[in-house]
Specification:
Blueprint: H1 2-12, H2 23-31, H3 35-44, H4 53-65, H5 69-82, H6 86-99
Amino acid sequence: MRHLLLGLVVCLAVPLPGQNNGLIDSLNRLDAGNFAESARILEQAGVRAGSDARALLTLGVALTLSGRFEEAIEPLQRAVQIKRLDEATLWLYACERMSGIVTEAHAYGIRRPGMPLRLEGMLPADQSS
């Protein structure tokens, strides 16, 4: 887990010119394992209302790791919509899986007991049954 978070920090650590949304401070808190504080910093900076996909991704990750799944869905979805970030898509699926919340945008299959996990819509139509 720590390597995954460290990779996220490296990918997101360089702020855009003029950017002052608490991202670096939040990433430092995230790396230290203080997930709730990381989310609080970004919430106070107004990231949720902004359009910085990297900051929205970081907020979604911090909220997911804090166990605040319902709150994490919206910033992760927006990060994916604003900029096709593979990390945001991955975390959105992780948040959905960890919480049992399934967003309409994903054709995510709920498995029956004993059935294998699978993502709907990932196979050609003739192989999906």
